[in-house]
Amino acid sequence: MESLEKRMANLEYYQRLLVQMADAEKYPFYLSVMKTGLSAEEIEDIHRICAELEQMLAEQKEQGLLDYMSLLTLFAGQLNHKLSVDDTILALHKQGMYVPLMTEFKKIIRK
């Protein structure tokens, strides 16, 4: 039986191959988190952050607020340090995730 280290090395190699095969146009966020080596927990944190901020966005829009810089600041402050804020926003939007929130963030970062 192969050693655990050898099996892990093979799995890591296969993951690198899969990353190269991934369609960057369809799955830019997933590709980004795989390249940076985020754990499942770290990825779930990103989903939690986005879901919370998206709820806050809906509440702020309902109140008639038009400036969402505070939400972007919260996002940037909580995002894993291995990821670029701008690239993550663009990747999430392109992949169709948290579209209302990422659309507002894109407007801000383009200014």
How would you describe the overall organization of this protein?
The protein is mainly alpha-helical. The protein contains 6 helices and no strands. The protein has helices spanning 4-21, 28-36, 40-62, 69-78, 85-94, 99-109. Helix 2 (28-36) packs across helix 5 (85-94), helix 3 (40-62) runs antiparallel to helix 4 (69-78) and helix 5 packs across helix 6. The longest helix has 23 residues, at 40-62. The mean pLDDT is 93. It comes from Metabacillus hrfriensis. This is DUF1878 family protein.
Attribute tags:
111 residues; mainly alpha; 6 helices; DUF1878 family protein
Shape: elongated
DSSP helical segment count:
6
**Topology as H/E string?**
HHHHHH
Write down the overall mean pLDDT. Answer: 93
The percent range for helix content is over 70%
Q: What's the Cα radius of gyration? A: 17 Å
Structural class: mainly alpha
Q: How much of the residues is beta strand, in percent?
A: under 5%
Largest beta sheet, briefly? none
Distance between the termini: 57 Å
Annotation, overall tally of beta strands: 0
| Low-confidence runs of at least 5 consecutive residues | none
Briefly, what is this?
This is DUF1878 family protein. With 111 residues, this protein is an all-alpha fold.
Break the fold down into its secondary structure elements and pairings:
Elements: H1 4-21, H2 28-36, H3 40-62, H4 69-78, H5 85-94, H6 99-109
